[in-house]
Write a structure and sequence with these properties.
The chain is mostly beta strands. The protein is 0% helix and 54% strand.
């Protein structure tokens, strides 16, 4: 079982930046960031594939968020810039590993407010 630990959430003003980190306890071949705002469904924000570094983003964050990873450390990052109040949510790290392995972190709160 691969364990995930997120960090880096917090309170930031509109237009500000935050960087989230997700440390995995073992090798993963895809790492994702999801978010869930109050009263809304969980949505996929960004994804990165270990084999080739291919990334995908939700339309709502393209150009503002960047996902990356340090493969030697099994760690993924989500750099968030130009944050908006609509980005307020609990952000969850998700990873795929092994044969149908699927792990989730506990989540980290991001609040964008003046």
């Amino acid at each position: 079982q691969v364990q995930l630990v997120e960090s880096g959430g917090g309170l930031v003003q509109p237009g500000g930046s935050l960087r989230l980190s997700c440390a995995a306890s073992g090798f993963t071949f895809i790492m994702n960031w999801y978010r869930q705002a109050p009263g809304k469904e969980r949505e996929l924000v960004a994804s990165i594939r270990t084999t080739d570094g291919n990334t995908t983003y939700a339309d709502s964050v393209k150009g503002r968020f960047t996902i990356s990873r340090a493969n030697t450390q099994n760690t993924a990052y989500l750099q968030m810039k130009s944050l908006k109040p609509d980005d307020t949510a609990v952000y969850y790290c998700n990873a795929k590993w092994g044969y149908q392995g699927d792990s989730w972190g506990r989540g980290t709160q991001v609040t964008v407010s003046s």
